[in-house]
Amino acid sequence: MLKLPQYQVIQQIYESSHSIIYRGTRKQDNQPVILKMLKEEYASPEELSRRKQEYEIITGLSHPRIIKAYGIEPYQNTIIMILEDFGGESLQRIMEKQQITVEDFFPLALQLTDSLAYIHATDIIHKDITPDNILVHQDSNQLKITDFCAASRLLYETPSLQSPGRLQGTLAYLSPEQTGRINRRVDCRTDLYSMGVTFYALLAGRLPFQSLDPLELVHAHIAKIPTPLYEVSPDIPRILSDIIMKLLKKNAEERYQSAFGVKADLERCHNDLLKLQSEPTFSFPLAEDDRSGKFQIPQKLYGRKREINTLLQAFERVCQGQAELMVVTGYSGVGKTALISEVHKPMISKHGYFLVGKFDQFQTDTPYNGIATACDTFCRYLLMENEDVLAEWRERIRAALGNHAQILIDIIPRLELIIGPQLIVPKVEATEAKNRFTLFFLKFIESICDKEHPIVLFIDDLQWADLDSLLLLEKIITESKVKYFFIIGSYRDNEVDKQHPLMGLLKKLKKSPAIIHIVELHNLFPKDIEQLLQDSLRGGAGVEDEGERIAHLSKVIYQKTQGNAFFTHQFLQILREKNLLNFNFKQRRWQWDIKQIAAQNITDNAVALLADKINSLPPKSSKLLQLAACIGNIFDFKTLSKCYNSFDAEAFSVLWSAIKEGLVQPLNENYKHLDLVENALFKFSHDRIRQAAYGLLPDDQKNPSICRLVASF
């Protein structure tokens, strides 16, 4: 039993894979407390950091339905958090002991939505709403949310690819976007999905998706539709089932947009049930009062229906055994990457792999850089598989490469973690070395593509590809025997001319038997901008002039941005930051002054607009972003702080302004506490942001060799 000098430990009440929970009292005043201790005798720095962050977040919240934290103390080689004890027990335990009726459900659900609305209003995402993290006092029915160790203080996060066992949160309750496999940001609506799973489990007595296979659970969250609750139990009213099924929508835009909206519909449903007990089949339009006051541009494509169909039809043919090439071209910011990302969901249903590589304008002298990055993604996928699956891939790749595997490991170092150390290959002259690498790279690609696992290889920014990479892609397309392989490339058509090597390659490929598609993306039409605004600025119910107001605004926005998707998003965000778009909580609608917006002296390109935004940051933050731009589109904090020549704490406080503004985004969890920030990894949220930051550098610092020097720190 745990022994602490200042506390009397009464009993152990819970044990998870990470924590042990005790009930006790504080000796000085006999105050009941909960003692939450990390289970590991020697806790990892990551776990210690998460607990410290949890304590910081809880102490910053003040709400009757959120657990209070009294302190955090070291204990041997770990730490203990001291929490309030209001006599509650986890909702999970209550569910295990008794069936939750519809009558029992409403008081709990209304308290949960109320507390979640408060959490989101403080710009915190909980990221682990489950029955285990909801405490209920059964006599008073009081509810409190606990366990904020996975929480985020950012408005949104972009989750990185992780094995299911390493995902933040509880797998059975994770939203599709929280799995990190559908290329969607995580915001407060992820908690609404998890709350929907919790509601489903409360009323059905089981989870919507049940599997012992973690990857199967991930797939279910992304692609499977749960059985509606009214079909699970005839005692559950259809309208209540519909509310919960809306929470479980795969796309965040189709869910409720706020906990306030969920609470409003639950209250209406509860009141109507009490009044109309003899007519349980009543219904009403959902989400009529669903207004969060937060400005959110939907993460979906507008005006791209034809291009999406072309992409998905090509992928379907690839799944039948074809090998195809698709090249997507258009001006920067037009939405090339967003379009290509639409292949994620069907790819997951086919158990395929999505490999992403990107060429860098400052590393054009590094052969195969973009292709190597994509293959590294594949290696990361394999390292997430169980040992049996990994062993199959290991033997397949070894058989294909034989004693020449080191040739690929030299370019793709992570491959060694899969197939183990390999024999050194003899050195040969440069031309023969290229031919040898090409030969065995083709063998490698042929070995990893099959019917059970079609491969999508996406190479971005081909306008910066080195000549060796272009020649390798040509060989893959024209000479390999590969099947079930979909190569997608993208390039900025405004940055290449007829003499560019890429143009020569495409001209040559068009004359070959290979199956090639060229997709040209253009700016959005005015009607697309209008639809985007209708979805972003949802007006109050019954507002007669709402459509007319938005149509007028869309014309002004289009005149300013000419329909460039990225420019449009940035311009709208700046209007919000300047309070030219405001939410009127009394009228429950967005308001704006069209004359003020039309009078904005806005630049005619996104880079200049972003440069102004970067310059509006504190001077130190602006300078730090310029240094980061020299390192690369992806940069690690350790290198950045060395270049900035400061301690981690100072450099991170400077970088935080850019993170909060969404200019850069973290790629792992290490940014959350100073103990781990040295290992934090970040990326610019868009190429144009990096371009804008780089453009602010003095001319004498824009030499690519200087950038390589900075990146090598």
From TrEMBL:
One of its GO terms (molecular function) is protein kinase activity. CDD domains: STKc_PknB_like (cd14014). Transmembrane segments: none annotated. It holds the Pfam family Pkinase. Residues 7-273 form the Protein kinase domain. PANTHER family: HYBRID SIGNAL TRANSDUCTION HISTIDINE KINASE G. This is AAA ATPase domain-containing protein. It comes from Candidatus Electrothrix aarhusensis. The lineage of its organism: Bacteria, Pseudomonadati, Thermodesulfobacteriota, Desulfobulbia, Desulfobulbales.
